């Protein structure tokens, strides 16, 4: 499962951030995942508990937001929100577009428990 290796990589980031901020636990993890990222959110949710078991993020809630697919047309310059399987310019209909968003996985934020 590809998503398990993604979770393990995410865990490394979480542990690094928690250590830098002297946090005792990660409470919530906010991710933004685009439909063109190659990551299946439901599989990521299944793999997440396995990856974080026994770590600083063991009880952290995983919150996933889906990113829109946005393209810029190389012909007319328009930027438009499109369907993942239809990357055509919404204004002129041209197929020569460049993906602006929708292919990313971003760690947007996390909530930590720190010692006072």
* Computed structural class: alpha+beta
**Helicity range of the residues?**
25-40%
CATH structural architecture? 2-Layer Sandwich
Q: What's the helix count?
A: 2
Topology as H/E string?
HEHEEEEE
Mean pLDDT: 95
Terminal CA distance reads: 39 Å
The domain tally reads 1
What does this structure look like?
- The protein is of the alpha+beta class and 116 residues long.
- It has a single domain, classed as hypothetical protein PF0899 fold (2-Layer Sandwich), CATH 3.30.2320.
- Helix content is 27%, strand content 35%.
- The protein contains two helices and six strands.
- It has helices at 2-20, 41-52, and strands spanning 23-33, 61-66, 69-73, 79-82, 97-101, 105-114.
- Helix 1 (2-20) packs across helix 2 (41-52).
- It is elongated.
- The N and C termini lie far apart (39 Å).
- The mean pLDDT is 95.
List keywords for this structure.
116 residues, 3-stranded antiparallel sheet, 3-stranded mixed sheet, hypothetical protein PF0899 fold, alpha+beta, elongated, 2 helices
Put the structure in a nutshell:
By secondary structure, this protein is α+β, with helices and mostly antiparallel strands.
């Amino acid at each position: 499962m590809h998503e398990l290796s993604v979770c393990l990589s995410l865990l490394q980031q979480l542990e690094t951030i928690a250590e830098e901020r002297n946090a005792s636990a990660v409470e919530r993890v906010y991710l933004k995942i685009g439909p063109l990222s190659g990551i299946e959110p439901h599989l990521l949710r299944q793999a997440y508990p396995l990856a974080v078991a026994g770590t600083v993020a063991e009880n952290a809630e995983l919150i996933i937001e889906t990113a829109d697919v946005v393209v810029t047309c190389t012909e007319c310059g328009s930027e438009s929100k499109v369907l993942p399987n239809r990357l055509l310019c919404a204004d002129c209909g041209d197929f020569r577009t460049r993906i602006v968003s929708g292919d990313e996985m971003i760690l947007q934020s996390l909530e930590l428990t720190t010692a006072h």
